[in-house]
Amino acid sequence: MTAPLYIARHAETVFNAGARMQGASAHTPLTRAGIAQAEAMGEALRAHFGSGQRLDFWASPAGRTLQTASIIAEHLGHPFFDVRTDPGLLEIGVGDWEGRYYADIVAEQGAIVDPERGLFITRAPGGEWYPEIAERLTAWLARLDPRFPAIVITHGITARVLRGMLVGGTPFEPGCVPLADGAPQGTIFRVENGAETALHVGTGAAVMTKGF
Predict the structure, then answer these.
(1) Does the pLDDT at position 143 exceed 90?
(2) What CATH number should be reported for the domain holding residue 12?
(3) How far is CA 107 from CA 47, 102, 130, 157, 196, in A?
(4) Which H/E stretch holds residue 150?
(5) Which domain holds residue 9?
(6) What are phi and psi of 190, to 5 degrees?
(7) 99 φψ region: left (φ > 0), alpha (ψ -120 to 50), beta (else)
(8) Percent over 90 (pLDDT), the chain
(9) Residues 13, 107: Cα–Cα separation, whole Å
(10) Secondary structure tally for the chain: helices H, strands E
(11) pLDDT per residue as tens digits for the range 151-209
(12) CA-to-CA distance for 64 and 13, rounded, in angstroms?
């Protein structure tokens, strides 16, 4: 990478608000609060870039990231149909947990999230683990054009893996990939030359029980 990368976590969805597992496949719409968060993200990026900046715009193929991207793109005057998608940007797969209430899963098998770091402490049945996300993100990074700044709208866990790959972080366990700290829904980080700054801090939830 040479040009900066802007990594954004999508805005709040109805599943986030209802504390249900989304994972990679569920396509869930934004709440009214989420729409307001996406508007604020677009305003922040418009203020940062101004007009006429050549950008590469990427998003996960999930409905929630595309809805967030559509609002941001309108602020930037960027055609939504030019937003590129890649399955490597999808959220961690949660397998059999997808669509289920977080509380019901915990009632069945006990804690599944580290409360301090907001990370899964066990793999979901049929789900993914952090190194698998890093592997697909590596393939996506190879598709970036190093000449132009890029915006990517992705997910909570996926963004933490991506930021960890680019700026470093603390592995969840020995031999795991580095993972960056969590951030609220609607947050945007600017990453360049191995360092990151928070361009915009969202108002959404930051903990796993409201942000998976």
Answers:
(1) yes
(2) 3.40.50.1240
(3) 45, 9, 24, 23, 38
(4) strand 150-154
(5) 5-211
(6) -100, 120
(7) left
(8) 88
(9) 23
(10) 7, 8
(11) 999 999 999 999 999 999 999 888 899 999 999 999 999 999 999 999 999 998 775 55
(12) 7
Report d(CA 39, CA 175) in Å as an integer: 39
Interatomic CA distance for residues 97 and 56, integer angstroms: 33
Cα–Cα distances (Å) from 95 to 20, 23, 26, 150, in that order, read: 13, 8, 11, 30
SS3 166: helix
**Count of the separate structural domains present in the chain:** 1
Residue 1 has pLDDT above 70, yes or no: no
Question: Distance between CA 44 and CA 36 in Å, rounded?
Answer: 12
Report yes or no on whether pTM surpasses 0.90: yes
Q: Residue 210 pLDDT > 50, yes or no?
A: no
Distance CA 177, CA 79 (A): 35
